[in-house]
Amino acid sequence: MAVSSRKRKKKKSPVKNILTWVLRVVIVLAVTIVIVAGTVGIMLRKMVKNDSTKSLLITTLMESGQLKFVAHMLVSDEEINEIVNANAMKKMEVQQNTSLITVETSETPEEGDTEVFDENGIRLEEISGRSFFAKMLIIKDPSQVAVGSTYPWGKYGKELNELVEGAGGVAGVNGGLYVSTGNAGGTPMGVVVQDGKITYNNPGGLAGLYVIGMNNENILIVEEITGMSAGAFENYVAEKGIRDAVAFQDEASDSNNHFVPLIINGEPRQLGGQGSGANPRTVIGQRADGAILLLVTDGRGTAGHLGATASDLIAIMQEYGAVNAANLDGGSSSTMVYNGNWEMTSVTFYYQNSSWKLPTAFVVRPKGGN
Q1: Helix (H) or strand (E) holding 221
Q2: With 80 as the cut, is the pLDDT of residue 286 above it?
């Protein structure tokens, strides 16, 4: 009997086949990342050769928690400081004049009023800017605006739609300063007040801290509380009649690049250049008739948009008649919900159809709701 000298090929095991496939995919992804990173790097270096583009790019990067290092790769620390200082804002020392707001209680529209509100007294507007797309909620009755939260506080926050639903609301936007590490989102920073009760009270050690919220007369309050102790804040809430409020910082540094007041007593904040970089933003404001304005913009590449600057925000809020207006937490946290729909969602890729986990939000309750 003839014996074949041909050796039989050994079949690869399924495990080896899978490992080979995974290795090939990893190699392709690695090469793609290197090519993309190299291309982006070349584009960014070209951009910094143009002074105006460089200014916007660097200020934008310095406002991002994760991308500050890119700014340091592109230009020197000295140049970063020069650019940030050139686009800084002047501090607003003026005290609010609450008599400039007269909350209208009449349900009958005034003659010539063309605004149309839904059954809950809410109007949704779309706004297109040169480098952003935005939506504005106009709430006719300011008493419907309150703070929703995850209180009692735990490690994890909730997405905006859950906060709105939990507070019995029909609309809302993200709220104040919080610990966003790992997207746990359960810990606010500074202070939180809900229905006159202080639910978080740790204002110490936070530079440029502002309280932003509603008093018992349903007037938007935007006031600095830097240096207050917990006890002093308790007295402040009682004396000022603060009903619902959160906190945000007005601080430009290498660790933070936040700003708060935009318009006080009808006067816009004085800016250097654009006042800030371009990013997703969330703003709260109030008109002379008491109506509350809640604005959210996109950015960071969404639909090709870079975002809104402080100058953009002031222009929008002036156009819509804001007497007082303040910037809230922005970036990837900026989101809006209205009637169960996501009107604006997080710009973070893996949360682009929802929001980051948040501890607080400004919530709009239905007309006649508690």
Answers
A1: strand 220-224
A2: yes
